[in-house]
Amino acid sequence: SVRGKVVIDAFRLIESATSVTGVEPRQSTSNIGQLHKPSIQALIHGLNRHYYSIAIDYRKNELEEKMLLNVHKKQWSHGMTLNNFNTHCSANQTAVGKMLRLAESYTKSVQEEQSLTTEELRTRHVGKQDPKRHLETTVEQVMGDNIVQTLGTAVDEQAL
């Protein structure tokens, strides 16, 4: 099977005695439109000689589809769980260092912009990291993490 796709197959063995007599081993002929052409790999391994494939059909109703969509969904309490304070502190320190480097890079790029022509301004970030955009995403991420941690701490403090 491929990631995200499940393949279901069923097989039935062919008795060697029926293959000698020449009798059709399949018990039903109602699957004429459901037969798939076997792959060469399957034929090498004995498909239609030692065993044959059986078509499988399945249906899901609306309720079963909703249930399957909710299997890996996060619970409402997931946002209330707190990270380890030491881990959170070290992540903050790493993020602040990254923001410092990005701010320096952004300041340098703003100074370079003043000497570029309009054509050079359009193509200057092609294939390069845009420090302004990365700085914005890093700041938003750190702020969000800190807000969640602070609110979670306040809720835990009030609950206990």
Given the C-alpha coordinates, what overall shape results? Answer: elongated
The strand line-up of the biggest sheet is 1-2
Point out poorly predicted stretches: none
Structural Rg: 31 Å
- The CA-CA distance between the termini, in Å, is 49 Å
Which structural class matches the secondary elements? mainly alpha
The profile of the biggest β sheet is:
2 strands, antiparallel
How much of the sequence is in beta strands?
5-15%
What are the secondary-structure elements, in order, as H or E?
A: EHHEHHHH
Count of β-strands = 2
Question: Counting H and I runs of at least 4 residues, what is the number of helices?
Answer: 6
Mean pLDDT: 80
Helix content: 40-55%
Sum up the structure in keywords.
6 helices; about 160 residues; mainly alpha
